[in-house]
């Protein structure tokens, strides 16, 4: 537990230290965010805000995790595969952001191209778990073995969570603040199960996201971009797969689930009836158009996420004591 706290603190400090020079670099190179035309009018002022902040967020997380794992003497193939997956998702997101810079608009990789990259990266941890024979899903005393169906489930889960966090990253501090809560909850769950290596990685991500929030809180000085959101979603899903907490992502990732469902409901409703259920999706934009301030939406969503995550940790402890 102590080294998990150390990992979080180191990642927090590193994110603060890396953030300043990286943001200055982005400003000098004029690598700013392009706002999509259909976004709320209030987002026009965000145009030009430095993006790809996920680079220093992920870097701080990985350095802190590696140092802490060696200090704890908990280095393992699984832990390093988890970090490699995290880095690969960062590069996938960076490639998407780079395409936006090149085209001078908010259109990066094609949806198919991005999905193929995400699926390819997800294969790494999923096949590691499958070959190791850990193809079961558990909830308390109940377990079901998916066998060779597990790779399909695992890849779908990791890819889905990666995209869900990407959808959530639409307001200043929204994705980062919720990720702090979610990864802190996973840190606690992994410590309960004795998975010290994964707990250290979770704590590192939580600390780095907290440090990133210093620059990303409203009004944001930098956005994480797909570089950060795809990576954070990817590592969250991978942690669940490698730690065997897949079903626990429902409460721990409740906000990301709601954001994704709002998009699915909106698209389905419009295609079938020609009518929209929400004023705009993802759902955080709906509340914006209802007159809520960004800061209020972030606070409410983060509080809801805290309630679900705290409940998940308490229930997990109860079922596994």
Throw out a few tags for this protein.
single chain; 321 residues; mainly alpha; 2 strands
What is the topology?
Layout: H1 2-29, H2 54-72, H3 77-103, H4 111-131, E1 136-139, E2 142-145, H5 150-168, H6 174-193, H7 196-216, H8 225-243, H9 249-252, H10 254-273, H11 283-289, H12 294-320
Antiparallel strand pairs: 1-2
Description:
There is one protein chain. This protein is mostly helical. It has helices spanning 2-29, 54-72, 77-103, 111-131, 150-168, 174-193, 196-216, 225-243, 249-252, 254-273, 283-289, 294-320; strands at residues 136-139, 142-145. α2 packs antiparallel against α7 (196-216), α5 (150-168) runs antiparallel to α8 and α6 (174-193) runs antiparallel to α7. The longest helix is centred in the first third of the chain and has 28 residues, at 2-29. The mean pLDDT is 89.
How would you concisely characterize the structure shown here?
This protein has 321 residues and is an all-alpha fold.
Number of helices: 12
Low-confidence blocks of residues: none
Radius of gyration: 19 Å
Helicity level: over 70%
Instruction: Tell me about the largest β-sheet.
Output: 2 strands, antiparallel
Q: What's the N-to-C terminus distance?
A: 17 Å
The averaged pLDDT comes out at 89
> Which structural class matches the secondary elements?
mainly alpha
Topology, number of strands:
2
Instruction: Give the CA-based shape.
Output: globular
Range of strand content = under 5%
Following the backbone from N to C, one meets helices and strands in this order, namely HHHHEEHHHHHHHH
Strand order of the largest sheet: 1-2
């Amino acid at each position: 537990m102590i080294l998990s706290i150390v990992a979080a603190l180191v990642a927090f400090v590193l994110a603060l230290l890396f953030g300043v020079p990286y943001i200055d670099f982005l400003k000098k190179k004029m690598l700013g965010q392009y706002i999509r035309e259909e976004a709320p009018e209030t987002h026009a002022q965000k145009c030009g805000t430095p993006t790809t902040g996920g680079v220093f967020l992920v870097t701080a997380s990985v350095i802190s995790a590696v140092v802490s794992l060696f200090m704890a003497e908990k280095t393992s193939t699984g832990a390093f595969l988890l970090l490699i997956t995290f880095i690969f998702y960062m590069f996938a997101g960076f490639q998407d952001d780079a395409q936006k810079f090149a085209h001078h608009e908010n259109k990066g990789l094609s949806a198919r191209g991005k999905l193929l990259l995400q699926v390819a990266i997800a294969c790494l941890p999923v096949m590691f778990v499958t070959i190791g024979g850990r193809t079961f899903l558990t909830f308390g005393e109940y377990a079901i073995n998916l066998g060779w169906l597990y790779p399909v489930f695992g890849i779908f889960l990791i890819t889905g969570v990666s995209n869900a966090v990407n959808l959530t990253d639409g307001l200043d501090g929204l994705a980062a603040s919720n990720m702090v809560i979610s990864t802190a909850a996973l840190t606690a769950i992994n410590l309960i199960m004795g998975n010290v290596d994964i707990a250290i990685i979770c704590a590192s991500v939580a600390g780095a996201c907290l440090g990133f929030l210093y620059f990303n809180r409203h009004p944001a000085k930098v956005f994480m971009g797909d570089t950060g959101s795809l990576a954070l979603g990817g590592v969250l899903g991978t942690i669940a797969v490698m730690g065997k907490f897949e079903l626990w992502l429902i409460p721990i990732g409740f906000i990301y689930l709601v954001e994704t469902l709002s998009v699915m409901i909106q698209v389905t409703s419009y295609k079938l009836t020609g009518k929209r259920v929400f004023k705009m999706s993802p759902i955080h934009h709906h509340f914006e158009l209802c007159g809520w301030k960004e800061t209020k939406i972030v606070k409410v969503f983060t509080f809801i996420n805290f309630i679900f995550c705290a409940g998940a940790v308490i229930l997990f402890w109860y079922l596994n004591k």
